[in-house]
Amino acid sequence: MERLGGRMLAVSVDPQSRNRKVVERNRLAFPILSDQDRKVTAGFGLLHKGGGPGYSDIPVPAHVLVNRDGRIIWRHIAMRIQDRPDPKEEIRLLREKLGS
Amino acid sequence: MTERPQTAARAPWALAGLLLSLGGWACYVIFLGNAWVRSTGLPAFVLLVLGAAVASRAVRGGQRGWARHAAAATVLSFGVFVVYFFVFSRLPSTNRAVGPAVAPAFSAVDHLGNQVSLNELRAAGPVLLVFYRGHW
Question: Global pTM?
């Protein structure tokens, strides 16, 4: 993403302290944003009500590409728990969409 | 009715069926890192169906005893995988086709405690947001 002039950020419903540990433990190169009140998740239409432990609301796994003027130019939303975009395919799509 | 003398020779069908079924589960778990395997489950489905078909042959061949249990296990195993794959794992169809066309502005705290706003981020360039189920 950085090579394409952009940034990647993760969003999770965990608290900031938990996210910090995850970034440190896995030496992630991208930040994790904390969405504990689920406002961001719900704003993107990605709320999975009752899908988490103790029937908590969690996000549906998704990748959302937002361009400079705020439009969503690509998204991959998981249909099943294990569903994630294929990394090679995603890189190809990012290059295509962001013109490289 | 007399027992077929070749009953013992038919044993491999049930065993083969069981091994195929186990192979189906194993290949799904082992290759879970592969996006295609994870999304389609195809290798597992193929092996599980084959396992059930092969084990059923032993039962249709008139074999009794453990072969029936083996065949039942392979069929059940396939059923369990279908339920796991299509029912248990399903996520709600959250605005998949529609969804917002414009990303809603938001502000959130990153892992270092900094307040981050989407408007600021996208001013610098495109942003890829990756939503996780969380609870790590």
Answer: 0.73
